[in-house]
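Milestone M4 deliverable, item 7.
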Amino acid sequence: MKINSKPTRRSLFMKQWDLQSMVLPGIIFVFVFSYIPMYGVLMAFQQYDIFAGIWDSRWVGWTNFRLFFNAPEFFNVLRNTIAISFLKLLISFPAPIILALMLNEIRNMAFKRIIQTVSYLPYFLSWVIVSGFVVSLLSVDNGTVNILLAKLDLIERPINFLSIPEYFWSILVSVNVWKEVGFASIVYLAAIAGVDPTLYEAASIDGASRFKQMYLVTLPCITPVIIIFMILAIGGILSAGFEDILLLASNPILREYSDVIDTYVYRVGIQNSRFSYATAVGLFKSIISVVLLLIANRVARRAGVSLW
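Output delivered:
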C-alpha cells in the first residue's frame, strides 16, 4: 500500500510559483532598504568619523547612550513623546472606527460617497500644505478661528495659538485626526463589508435596534482587525510624529511641549552632525518599540488574535 507522504515546502512552493513570484519584489525591496542598512546601527557604539567610515571609526561602547540618558532634555523629550503618542492612540485610533460605523449606517449612497470623499481628501495633502493651512487658520492677523471667536464675543483680542505651548498638543492631535481619519476608516469599512448579512437579519428579528446591531454584531465581527491595528499602534507608540511636529512647531517657544524623540534626533543629532549620538537615540527608540510590540502581541494572543 502506497502511503501519501506529506508535501515538502519545495513542492508547495513550485505549485504556487506564480503567487510566490508576486511577493518577490516586496521581499527584495524590504531586504535592500530595511535589512542591508541595519549595519549602520554600529555607529551608535562608535565616535563616528565621516572620513574614516563605519568600520574604521573609534569604538566608544555605551557612551552615546549614557550621554542621552544624562542629557538635560531627556525626561522632557520622553514625556512629550509618550504624551503625544498616548493622545494620538486615545483619540486618533478610535476615530476611524467610529467614522466607519457611522458611514455603514448611511443608506443614501450619494450622500455616503460625498462624506467618504470629503473625509479622504486631507490624507492626500502633504504636511507642508496642511501646516500652512493650520497656520493661516490660527493666525493672529485675519485668522478664521480668531475672527470667529471675536464675532461670538468669546475673546477681546486675537490669540496666538501657535505661540502658547499648552495648546500645542491639542492642535497637533486635532489636525492629525482631521488628516488621517478618513483614509484610516477604509480598512474598517472593508472589514464591515465582510460581515455576514444574516447576522443582522437574525438580530433584527430578535428586536435589536440599529444601534444594538452595531454594538452586538458589527463590532464583535471586526474586533480581530481592531486588535491587529491596536498591536501595531502600541508598537509604534514612541513614534509620536516628525513632519507634523517639525512643521507646526517651528516656533522655538513650543519646544518644551513639542520636542519628541524624532525631532530631537533631527535637531541635535543630524543638524549638529552628531551622527553616532543620533543613531544611539534612534536605536533606543527602536528597541523600546520592539519590546512594546512583543508585549502587545503576547497579550492579544490570549484573546485569540495576534500577528504571529
